[in-house]
Amino acid sequence: MPADRPVPLDEYPIHQAPLSMKHVVTGDRNAYDRCIFHVFDHAGRAVLIAGLGVYPNTGVIDAYATLRTGDVLLAVRASDALTDDRMNLAVGPLRITVEEPLRRIALRCDPDPADPDGLSFDLAWTAEFPAVWEPHHTQRRGDRLVLEGRRFVQAGHVTGTLRARGEEHVLTPDAWTGTRDRSWGVRPIPGEDGGRAAEEHRPEGFHWLWIPVRFPDRFVMVIVQEDADGRRTLNEAVQVFREGSGRPDVQLGWPHTDIRYRPGTRHPESAVVHLADPARKPLELGVEILGSSPLAVGAGYPPAADWQHGTWQGRGWTDRRVLDLSDPAAHPMAPHGVTDHSARFTLDGQTGHGIFEHGSSGRHDPSGFTDHASVAP
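The structure assignment produced for this chain is given below.
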């Protein structure tokens, strides 16, 4: 289609600026619009992570899915040229279909004809709680705004079929949970020269927690981002109830987390998140780690060395890999990124399941980490 013609989305009254829906308002190369899903069983046997993103100013659409079972991680990644059909959320063998906005979404990964024992799935994600906004997220390097994201998060159940390594899993709502995050804005894409700001404003440390939890009658979301000194730059703790319950969202104070790390690492094994209700009654969110999947291995998050989101791989690129996670030395950069841990949670006498997303790199005074080499005793 010629660049000077309307695109199909221009038919709808959804414009936010006097531009075609083909264009985003910003000219920043790092503009993005993407989603991530976490699907995991309550016994800790499997962790599936899947997502899709578009990068309008670099002309890229890409998607990925990783499944960890035991010490094996299967990864499927795909990338292609972005087209004007923004409603078609598909790249290579990966597809996301919004069947009912904010309620029902289909996730699919087609099997590889050359490897019938490889990763494939046909899943239906169904919301159980309303979507809730996360705090407006901004980050600067020197004076430049390098990250600005608007995000919402939601929890539900997942049904369907997941196949991998010759085994078929039939997902049921009582044994599997699905959480998701939807975000858009500006976020760094590899390949840009950061100039003086990158040289003179290197962060000494980064500490991150993102914790969505599905309980039988409520959804709890906790977010914490801190710098090396422990100064908090992002904070949220909220409790959301089912639609129709008549119960409003409840803020749960300023969360503080005690994490028990595996000795010699920064790998969390359990934690307690200290919360408080509006009457200042203390609440403890207990965390028991079940399974773990590092986002820098297979999923395209920094500091992955083989592929990262938004990078141009050429038209019709698809890549499938089987990765061994039994030897940490085989993936030396993984601990410097973010890892998604499926976990069992307890709160106020209830048991729930969710994701304990954790990232800790460099100095973090509250944790006792002094530099990038520092680990738990």
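Interim note for the steering committee: Residues 195-200 form the longest helix (6 residues). The longest strand covers residues 144-164.
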